[in-house]
Amino acid sequence: MPQVDIERIESDIVAISRFGFNEADRGVYRQGFSEADMAARQWLRDRFEELGMEHRMDGAGNVIGRFGPADKPAVLIASHMDSVPASGIFDGVLGVVAGLEVVRALKDAEIIPDFPIEVIGTSEEEGRFGGMLGAQAMTGKLTREWLDTAKDEHGFALKDAMSIAGLDPYAALHAYRRPDEIHAFLELHVEQGPVLDLEKTTIGVVEGISGVFKWNCRLIGKADHAGTAPMHMRADALMGMADFAHEIGRIIDEHGTDKSRITIGHVACKPGFPHTVPGEVDFTIVGRDLDEGVMTALAEACERVLSSIARKHKLRFEYEQMSWLKPAYCDDGLITMMSAKAEELGLSHKTMPSGAGHDVQFFCEHTRAGLIFVPSVGGVSHAPDEWTHWSDIERGTQLLLECVMELACEQKDLAPAGQTAKSH
């Protein structure tokens, strides 16, 4: 049976980490369509070339390498190449390198798959411009209007970033992959949370990606002198928001599940002066759950509680829903297969949701799609000290290889581990 080589995997991950590496804080800065991002994509194409794989970059910036026959739907192994500012070295990159290693392992064992395997480094997954461009483009979820209007937090247009990177922005609309071109979609990713590490479990078989709603909220009261305004006469907007923060646990207990999350991530007081009672507070609410009905219940409860708190504190409550993303469910057959393969390899595993978004979520309604997690030490991600043990990476990549062979190789009479197997 083919075996992955952890030394090759480690070498590849370290090599990619040099693109955008910052010595000062030891973080990686490889935002979508930056020079570092495009250099990393060329690095991946060079590796495809070395392996004799057909390769290309599509109009959305996805780098695609193909191994196997040309006339059948492909098993896609994909994750992203870009990073958030000051990221670690594993987020996204692991899934791309693991796909590369799957092809190497099959070639080492002289196995040619019956269905082609495509390794894809997707573009702009981290949302510099507000979406997951590469996955959206491949699954037909991209519009010309969005391409025309998308900007990053500094107001820099997506169209301009793509043009500077040598891409025609509207060519992204031609990156669509029909469902009949895809045999299955698989992604391997670090968990980015603490569950697997705390429970000493090697593999997470993901059942689905939580849906997300985001609100921009405002409580409006009256600014006043912090020394002269009696406490009982104030219309303190921050006190209203603080009361709501204390209610989050109760809202989840009454209307949510163990998979529910509600977060106040950004708060801005106005006028924001130490000696002035806050007359207005702007804040965000982000809610998540794997069940859209639960999401709706949580959202309705948040609105009721905030309206009640506003009346109590003599405030006016306003909010705008910025986005509502439905949950995405992984394929039941792939979940069963991944769990069975983990059992065969003697790997501890559990079925779990993903609270974070991933490329796979756009493929869940497009084809059969599955996601494998390996542990993140301490649950740390999107930070320079993100870490996953190489032994866990090796196990996760071997599981990915076993799953790919199940999907792409019709011949099952493969030699045992340690022996060479050839396709017939």
UniProtKB/TrEMBL annotation:
The keyword Ribonucleoprotein does not apply. Binds 2 Zn(2+) ions per subunit. GO terms for molecular function: hydrolase activity, acting on carbon-nitrogen (but not peptide) bonds, in linear amidines; metal ion binding. Zn(2+) 2 binds at D91, E126, H382. Keywords: Hydrolase, Metal-binding, Zinc. Gene3D superfamilies: 3.30.70.360, Zn peptidases. Pfam families: Peptidase_M20 (PF01546). This is Allantoate amidohydrolase. PANTHER family: ALLANTOATE AMIDOHYDROLASE, ALLANTOATE DEIMINASE-RELATED.
